[in-house]
Amino acid sequence: MSEHYPFVNYPLPYSYNALEPYIDEKTMHLHHDRHLQTYVDNLNAILKANPQLQNMTLEQLILYAPTLPANIRTPLLNNAGGVYNHRFYFDNMTSPGIDRPLGIFAFYINQAFGSFQNFEDQMAAAALSVFGSGYAWLVADHDGTLKIITTSNQDTPLSMNLHPLLNLDVWEHAYYLKHYNNRPAYIHNWFHVVNWKTVSQNYLAFINGYT
């Protein structure tokens, strides 16, 4: 949380082929090593030219950017958001295993959406509704209420005062090598690799005041 300039592209928390057969190894190499790396490089270039911003964390940059002149604001939001959103996406996936939350977080999902199936249906519908590029998110508002939202391009829930729990990247580069233009098939497969343990820990820490 305290990381600041120069930012680095951390290794994935699993091997590139760990999400097979649902997300292919080649896509993971391209997505992490090229797309995310480009956002990291672009963000560092912006900050190199603006030393007054170099001590800010990624989250602080995203929240502070709207106060800056447009010529800095837009590229900063795009690239800081690109780093944030991609890291969040990669960190909340894992090798296929438990395909739904367990324990107390399962209760919260059922309380918010009626059932896990309803959550899946609503999350998938949100992801399909994104026109062009963006994300579907599971978030918590200030009182812990669970919601599903969408964001365009590299916008984040942080600027909406929402706490992110899980995101589904629906930029075409996230799925095109395996699924071509079949976004529904990618969404269906993504549900098999969600790391519900980290999502649950994130939410429970948030509602208990640790974040």
TrEMBL record:
GO terms for cellular component: cytoplasm. It catalyses: 2 superoxide + 2 H(+) = H2O2 + O2. It is an enzyme of class 1 (oxidoreductase). The keyword Metal-binding applies. Mn(2+) binds at residues 31, 86, 169, 173. Residues 11-94 form the Manganese/iron superoxide dismutase N-terminal domain. Destroys radicals which are normally produced within the cells and which are toxic to biological systems. Belongs to the iron/manganese superoxide dismutase family. This is Superoxide dismutase. It comes from Robinsoniella peoriensis. The gene is sodA.
